[in-house]
Amino acid sequence: MSAPSVLSRADVAAPVAAQPDTQDFDAERARRRQRRQLLVLFLRVALAVVVIGTWEAGTRIGCYGNDTGTCVIDKFFFGQPSGIWDQVVTWVQKGTAQGPLWEQIVVTLEETILGFAIGVVLGMVFGVALGRNRLLSDVAGPYIKALNAMPRVVLGSIFTIMLGLEMPSKVALAVVLVFFVVFFNAFQGVREVDRDLIANARVLGATPGQLQRHVILPSALSWILASLHTSFGFALVGAIVGEYLGARKGVGLMIATAQGTFNANGVFAAMLILAVLAIVAEAFITRLENALIRWRPNAITDISI
Amino acid sequence: MASRGAGITRPWSPVPTYKPAIELRGVTKRFVSPAGKSFTALRDLNFAVGAGEFCAIVGPTGCGKSTTLSLISGLEPPSSGEVVVFGEPVRGVGKQVGYMFQRDAVFPWKNVLDNVAVGPGFRGASGADANARAREWIARVGLSGFERYYPHQLSGGMRKRVALAQTLINGPRILLMDEPFSALDVQTRVLMENELLQLWSTTGASVVFVTHDLEEAIALADRVIVITAGPGTVKSTYSVDLPRPRNVAEIRFQPRFVELYEEIWKDLRDEVMVSYERTKRAVAS
Q1: Cβ–Cβ below 8 Å for A194 and B105
Q2: Same domain for B192 and B116?
Q3: What average pLDDT does this structure show over A100-124?
Q4: What are phi and psi of B45, to 5 degrees?
Q5: What is the DSSP letter of A66?
Q6: B140·A5 Cβ contact <8 A
Q7: Are residues B119 and B243 located together in one domain of the fold?
Q8: Contact residues on chain B for A201, CB-CB shorter than 8 A
Q9: Inter-chain contact B158–A13, Cβ cutoff 8 Å?
Q10: What is the dihedral of CA A189, B184, B227, B247, to 10 degrees?
Q11: Could you say which of B93, B103, B198 has the minimum Cβ distance to residue A203?
Q12: Could you give the C-alpha distances from A182 to A104, A126, A239, B27, B161, in angstroms and in order?
């Protein structure tokens, strides 16, 4: 069945076998790389120990009696690492003022993910639509720029008034924050599609729908995916600020409560929890990105900052 | 093959003695730049390409060679005049046409198999059928075993093979090629040129091959059309009476090849100089 190959394969690359005299060289390089990785790891831990240790020490040095104001660092205002840890442990074991810790985290995550998903979908739809339609983008352009220039976090107050203390007001704020990031990337991604690729698809017989699915969306996808890292962070900010402004549950409310009782350690402990959430989400998005754009050379996997 | 037109320096007569596959009749193409200035790429262009003929178009940079191809493909309409393919005026992208671009136009997010199968898929073939035909073409261009590779994992020559299979799988009766091998190194290029000739000889398609390389044009084509410096129009036409099958690597040493080269180069040189002077002025101003 297979057609005879009339063509030579002289320019077809073949894997090069490792040569014996390069083995020592390779082994030496592997050793060096390993040593360097260990050094980096050691310095990272050392940096954390120095910063946290200095902070902790500062709250314990120079104190007279029970007056924390006389210490080098006043733990009443600036918190204390061991106190922050104690606060986390207390929350885990005994729950927070508004219920168990996991419940607050689940509520915040739910708002974040919902806002993120809605914002991403809306951003993509509008970004692709405006990117493909010059008239639409010319008409809507100034309004979108104006909306984007507004400090949108302020909308949180309006959403709290409009939508109440429950979940919708937080989701709305997250959506608004996420939307613009994704929108601009999708818009740009569609605009940047290689014209030769579009011409090629048209000559090969693509209908407008096929052109969209096989050329424009895949091309814009790498831009859109790049925006997801930033926009998940924005979704979290939207949920937290929304809760902070008024809520019945959530990590943002925990921060507001801690602030209200002058509990600096409580604010820091909530931040710690948020940081862990953000790092886990970031890892998840990176995996999603790599799965979706396997075709791209040097997908961004090694940028860790 | 050699009988087509005995006097090789005689400008080609616009009245063909055979039924043409492609005809351009008084075609002019103007573009409007973003600054609102209009610019004439082609002026009163007339030529025809016979069925199964391999026709090369040479001319200096910016003479509208690529524009000619987009007019024939239907990607762009002419500003005036008429483009006729198989007796029908061109309205939109034609189904009979295959187009190989100068830059890599394979889809980077599709692997080799999907890239080749995409044409039949667009034209309504079932997935299994498209894949079976794609495998056949991948074998024909010598890439069996690389079906799952993505374009960025392949060499430049291999990507051109993918593009060739992607274009030819649709069975185009008209093949438009816009300097398809200009980005390749010299050895790979000769290899690809030979393979193109072999594949073409089995399809019977009419080819319009745009290049700025006169050697490539003579080595491949039945006929060479010289286009003037922009706005482009036909300056002269030469029949290449070299026997087929040809070996592109060796044909350059034949006395007839050298003769043809000298003849055509005299024409082309003037246009290249005009174009060069213009570029110099444009840079200076």
Answers
A1: yes
A2: no
A3: 94
A4: -90, 125
A5: T
A6: yes
A7: no
A8: 107, 118, 122
A9: yes
A10: -140
A11: B93
A12: 27, 9, 17, 45, 37
Q: Chain centroid to CA B217: how far? A: 10
Residue by residue, DSSP assigns A39-81 as HHHHHHHHHHHHHHHHHHHHTTSS-BTTBGGGSSS-HHHH--H
Say whether both B6 and B109 belong to one domain.
no
The answer to whether the CB atoms of A197 and B105 lie below 8 A apart is yes
- Predicted confidence (pLDDT) per residue in B180-224, tens digit: 998 889 889 999 999 999 999 988 899 999 998 999 999 999 999
Tell me: do B252 and B123 sit in the same domain: no
Domain that holds residue B6: 1-96+173-285
Question: Do B113 and B154 share a structural domain?
Answer: yes
Q: Which chain B residues have a beta carbon less than 8 Å from that of A296?
A: 108-109, 152
Q: Exposed, middle or buried, A51 (CB in 10 Å: 0-12/13-18/19+)?
A: exposed
Task: Tell me the CB-side half-sphere exposure of residue B159, using CA atoms within 13 A.
Answer: 20
> How far apart, in whole angstroms, are the C-alpha atoms of residue B141 and residue B198?
10
Encode pLDDT of B156-171 as tens digits.
899 999 999 999 999 9
**Winning range, highest mean pLDDT, from A147-151, B87-91, B161-165:** B161-165
> Scanning the structure block, which residue is given the tokens 């914002």?
A119
B117 and B220 housed in the same domain: no
Strand partners, B23: B48, B84
Residue with tokens 């205002």: A77
Flag whether residue A291 sits within 8 Å of chain B, measured between CB atoms.
Answer: no
Answer yes or no: do B109 and A202 touch at CB < 8 A.
no
Domain count, chain B: 2
Tokens at A236, concatenated: 């979290």
Q: Which residue has the tokens 């073949």?
A: A14
* pTM exceeds 0.90: no
Q: Is the dihedral of CA B196, B201, B205, B210 positive or negative?
A: positive
Residue B86 three-state SS:
coil
- Check the CA dihedral A239-A243-A249-A255 and report its sign: positive
C-alpha B256, offset from chain centre: 23
Task: Extract the tokens encoding A240.
Answer: 């937290």
